[in-house]
Amino acid sequence: MRILLPPSETKRDGGADAPLALDALSFPTLSGSREQTIAALGALSTDGDAMMRALKLGPRQVPEVERNRRLAVAPTMAAIDRYTGVLFDALDAPSLDAAARRFAGRTVVVHSALLGLVGALDPIPAYRLSHDSKLPGLRLKSHWRSPIAEVLDSESGLIVDLRSEGYAELGPAPVRPGSVYVRVVSLDGAGRKRALNHFNKQAKGRFTRAVLEGRPELESIDDLLGWADSAGFSMHLGEDRGEALPREIELVA
After folding, report:
1. Source organism's superkingdom (predicted)?
2. Where exactly are the structural domains of the chain?
3. What are residue 125's phi and psi, to 5 degrees?
4. Helix, strand, coil percentages for the chain (3-state, nearest 5)
């Protein structure tokens, strides 16, 4: 099983591990694409004003420029600890016990705009780059789409895609039984469904933490739905999105 998470714009500073080493990351077939993205971001880093515009940063976010300039020498920490924000605050990875963290290392993957897919325990530095950022000579969607799709297509088990649509477009999950896209919804008093934003991320974080604490061995969509019900989550099949998109599952928050 693989659980795909989106990254977060916000990240913890510091780290106790050595600087970024691409050969220490999961999915080594992405190394060439990672090198190109890092090089393009490095080229942009020579002009602070240009980087501010390209990354859509405001005056209070000037330190993000220095983060990107220091990528090669900055300390690293596990990806699941690096990211902060609503989803990762709800997940609260630093408080997981050792067994849950080992399970995360085997199952959880974070989709980084800079590094592509990274394992939960992969050591990464703090950086700033989003799926819609503009880099000189490199379009992130066309750059990452095929390499990431190939990696995900090679995964034989259950894929639970909790990414935002922007990141899902940056590297689509395969369309096959056992590959599902999770959409968080709420129900109003009349039973009408609506999409969520803040609580969407919170629900995904809570769900992922529950999986890591429970450590179920899930091999199919039926397994996923059955476990979710036993764990207190309201999760069911959504509308069929057609042959071109993975099956959708709705998680009711």
Report:
1. Bacteria
2. 2-252
3. -85, 170
4. 40, 20, 40
CA distances from 99 to 49, 71, 93, 206 (A): 45, 30, 12, 17
CA 186/CA 86 separation, integer angstroms: 17
The answer to whether 179 and 173 have CB atoms below 8 angstroms apart is yes
This prediction has a pTM of 0.93
Bridge pairing between strands 179-187 and 159-161: parallel
d(CA 91, CA 51): 31
- Residue for token digits 């490199």? 138
How many beta carbons lie within 10 A of that of residue 83, not counting itself? 24
* 47 CB neighbour count, 10 Å cutoff: 13
Instruction: Compute the distance between CA of residue 27 and CA of residue 125 in angstroms, rounded to an integer.
Output: 17
Amino acid at 187: L
Residue 1 structure tokens: 């099983």
Strand partners, 34: none
